[in-house]
Structure formats: C-alpha cells, structure tokens
Design goal:
The protein is of the alpha/beta class and 307 residues long. It has a single domain, classed as 3-Layer(aba) Sandwich (Glycerol-3-phosphate (1)-acyltransferase), CATH 3.40.1130. The chain is 47% helix and 15% strand. Helix 8 links the parallel strand 3 and strand 4. It is globular. The termini are far apart.
C-alpha cells in the first residue's frame, strides 16, 4: 500500500505517533477490497463500536437530535442516534472505497440526477457554487459526483496531518483541484472563470463572519460568506444532495435547480434560505447527517447547549 503514498514525503510520517493512523489506513484499504455488501455490514459494526466508545460524540448527537426532532419520542430519538452512528461507520469504510475503488466498481453504484442544472449554468457563462453539507456519505458521493461534474473541493485541514495528506492526495487525484477554505481569493477566481466549487457551509465556526438563522427549527450560527460569494461572482448556487440508498443500490447525488433570487441583499433571509436548502435533504435522510458535530454551540446568549 505504500506505493499509493509515494508523493507524501513518507519520512515525515514514520514516527511512532503515526503508527495507529497507518494501521487505520491499512484496515480501510483492506475493507475497500471487500464486496460492497460486506463493506456496508462492516461499516455498521464500526458504527456500533463507535456508539459505545465515543461517549462525548454520542452525547452531542443526542442533544442535536433532541433539539431538531422534538416531535419524536425519546425512544425514536435514541434509535436515530444509533442509526446515525451506523451511518458514520459506513462513511469511514466508504472513505477507503472512494480512494481505492476502481472506476468500474464505483460507477455501478452512482445514481446522478440533475446534471443539466450545472450544464445550463456553464452554458450561460456562470460559475457554479455546489452547495453541500456534511452528510456521512460525503467522501464517497464526492468521488461519484466527479464522474459527471469536474469541481474544486473547498475544504478544511484535518487535525491528523497524515490523514490530511492522504485525504488531500485523493482529492487532487479525483477532483479538478483543492482550495483551502480560508483561500477566498482562489475560490472567487475559480467561480469567475466559470468553474464549479463544492462548498459545505453547515458547520458552526463561531461568532465571526456569521449571523443567526434557523436550521431544523433551532437558532444556528450561519456563515454569511455564501451570499457574498454569489454577489461578487454572479455564480449559480446549486444545492447538492448526497444519499446512501437502501440495500446495495449505491448512492444518489442530486443536483437541484439553482436557488432563485439569491442573494437577496438581506443577510438573515439569505442565511435562512441556505439553511432551508440543506434542511430539505437532512429531513429526507436524517440518520445520514453528521449529528456528531456541535452545530449549535454558538448562540446569541453565549450559552452552548452542549455545556
């Protein structure tokens, strides 16, 4: 497997502190060789182990789901938390499959809808901001999406430098390019050049450059950058939905029509529009959203629900 990482300056990652990460990567590579149905089964088992071991993450998911689905009973909420961890486990196994799976195997799992919306925007001379979110199938669906639409991925660094190197290697290999989320100039340049950028603004990054808008019925700190980017570049903002389908059917990647009359000039209205676009898919497949992130930690009264 080391030949896969020949361009990583391996000497930087041979220290003992990286050995657990290498073991994890090796396990992911082995899992990627299994039949797809076995990968899904293994992913659910990984999720079950994570549910029992990652108590802090489980608590975050419990709070998020209680806030966002108050109409559900406690038993139903508890079941959704378990299903969320199963989905997270599947996402871990899918990451390796998305990196090391052959085009032939992966194309057989791809169900792509709405590509005409992206092509129409390109035909009109517009860049495309692909408005995504942190679904657990994100890495797999990103690879599948690239079969139809070349795009630049706008992403944050991973905390683990070895994992970050591997992740970015395969992003560069499979996508049109990679843009750090802090490099706004590169993102604007790509959109003004009528390229597509995949962007997920659904995480709580604190109080700077955010406003408060509803998401899933809960007040959430929401980035204002989406509207600013659209205003400066005149790009089409096209929501994309990722969904792991039942059984062995694979994955649906759905490009929706561009958001109309966006930006409106009203920051709260625009942030609410963005959150509502993401919420539509979250409600369609709630267990596949990344509920282990502290989405609501920043609040107007400075009181986090996770404390």
């Amino acid at each position: 497997m080391t030949s896969q990482f020949a361009d990583f300056q391996l000497k930087r990652y041979l220290a003992p502190r990286f050995w657990p990460t290498w073991l994890g990567l090796g396990a992911m590579w082995l899992a990627a060789q299994l039949p797809y149905s076995a990968q899904l089964w293994l992913g659910r088992q990984v999720g079950t182990v994570a549910f029992h071991l990652l108590k802090k993450k489980r608590r975050v998911a419990e709070i998020n789901i209680a806030l966002c689905f108050p109409e559900r009973s406690e038993a139903e909420q508890a079941q959704l938390v378990k299903e969320t961890f199963h989905s997270v486990g599947c996402g871990i196994i899918e990451a390796g499959f998305s990196w090391w799976g052959s085009d032939r195997r992966l194309r057989a799992l791809a169900h792509i809808e709405g590509v005409e919306h992206v092509n129409n925007a390109f035909a009109e001379g517009k860049g495309v901001l692909l408005l995504g979110a942190h679904y657990t199938s994100l890495l797999m669906c990103g690879r599948l999406m690239a079969f139809e639409v070349p795009f630049y991925a706008v992403a944050k660094r991973a905390h683990n430098p070895l994992f970050d190197s591997v992740l970015n290697h395969y992003r560069r290999k499979h996508f049109a390019g990679l843009i750090n989320h802090t490099n706004m100039r590169a993102m604007l340049k790509a959109l003004k050049s009528n390229k597509a950028c995949w962007y997920a603004p659904d995480q709580d990054l604190g109080y700077e450059s955010t406003i408060f808008a509803p998401f899933m019925g809960v007040t959430a700190a929401t980035l204002t950058a989406t509207a600013r980017i659209a205003r400066v570049t005149h790009c089409a903002v096209i929501p994309i939905d990722f969904e792991r389908l039942p059984g062995r059917q694979g994955y649906r990647v759905r490009f929706r029509p561009p958001i109309e009359a966006f930006p409106s000039g009203d920051e709260v209205r625009d942030a609410t529009t963005i959150n509502a676009a993401i919420e539509e898919q979250v409600r369609r497949a709630p267990s596949q959203y990344l509920w282990i992130h502290r989405r609501f930690k920043s609040q107007p009264d400075r009181r986090s629900p996770y404390e």
